[in-house]
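Structure, all two chains, one model.
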Amino acid sequence: MNTSEYSDFKAGLLDQVSVLRANIRSGTHTSTTSGTAHSLVQGNVVILPADWANDFLLYCQSNPVACPLIGVSQIGNPALPGLGRDLDIRTDIPEYQVFRNGERAETLTDIRDVWRNDFVTFVLGCSFSFEDALIRAGLSIRNVEHGQNVSMYRSGITTQSAGRFHGNMVVSMRPFKAADAIRAIQITTRLPNAHGAPVHIGDPALIGITDIHTPDFGDAVTIGSDELPVFWACGVTPQVALENARPPIAITHVPGKMLLTERLNEELAVL
Amino acid sequence: MNTSEYSDFKAGLLDQVSVLRANIRSGTHTSTTSGTAHSLVQGNVVILPADWANDFLLYCQSNPVACPLIGVSQIGNPALPGLGRDLDIRTDIPEYQVFRNGERAETLTDIRDVWRNDFVTFVLGCSFSFEDALIRAGLSIRNVEHGQNVSMYRSGITTQSAGRFHGNMVVSMRPFKAADAIRAIQITTRLPNAHGAPVHIGDPALIGITDIHTPDFGDAVTIGSDELPVFWACGVTPQVALENARPPIAITHVPGKMLLTERLNEELAVL
């Protein structure tokens, strides 16, 4: 690829994300964003009142593997200019989960009616970025191959508490043969802003997962007898911390229905 | 460490290796070099008649993970100036294994009497370099902790044939808990000239090892129920290829009794 080809490539991606975003904004696209705009960074989202923002910022900084911060908004401003030219966080996610006092309340496809002038938006990197990198390296990802959402579990791994936020880590799991698992560790190490290297490999019970076939979020996938389950920290972890912190209101994306940004996955790589 | 401290550090290492080399040269030190001069590169050695050298060179280049070449001598010259100031390959290994027509024949502590003017020496990187890097990262290596030689196995992984050289890969195994195994994969990826990342992790049967408790070379180590066996390509692999190629004569080190060089392990790192 030469520089001119790169410009065309990036322009094509931005056109593609503009169409997708218009469909999400209008409520036409309400399903998972997995497999869409796959060269571009997708983000986990947490929206909180400003008086909860400092605690949450500290929680992210204390748990950078589960909560790699790639964007924070101004108070009350629904734009995220560092992540997209005309992003509006009130309309640009396929489906939102509202939490009230830590309980999962309504889901919405648009949060303009519940938006508040003291809301702060946090965007965290997402494993979809490293899935793209793994596929480009020739690896096959079971949930992508089968058109499923990734398997996610409430693990027994504790996170670092910060203010009112605390709880166990949510992990995503993808099965690989050993050689591919080793390659996946190498590739994801390059992408600390997309959760980086796995946190566990092998026996699920060692991280407190009693039934690998029943994920807490997403879909179950088959695991071959010659495969190892490989576990990454997951951006759903803050939703567990929200359940524990019980802010009067908080809004997140629905797992798998992410914010599409205009940043390239490759821009998140450290080497 | 500042530059002056680095100079002192390196001078100290060279003094240390000079003493060790003198003891090896005089036949006083005939045991494993594991745990000695641990900041310095140790090498696997294969010595062959010149008319076998081209095939072997191609074999190494075709199998760089098992056979990372870090030095090749001039024909008939026992010096290796790139690896040490006054190295003499005829005297500077604790114990040599002579192969005759592919069969393990005598072992010697000095090969001056069998040296030939057509011999070519090949030196390959060794896992002792990455053991040093793992220990510096705070990992505990079972065989080092217990003062044992590492466990090595004839695996079912085939190598790329080259001329008369062919055969399966020998692998070394170290058990780790999952998080340490992941860290070990990251660290050894930096050191491709010391075998680099593992070739397998988990079930030994998947790479043709039927009894993990009975290594083909080195010592058996305990593996905890919460640990995964992690397998790296091993510089003993060429000895299997020698058994198959059956050159009239070849000389190697005895596994675990390596050539001490004056190169720092850190000089082998790619990043």
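The longest helix of chain B spans residues 3-25.
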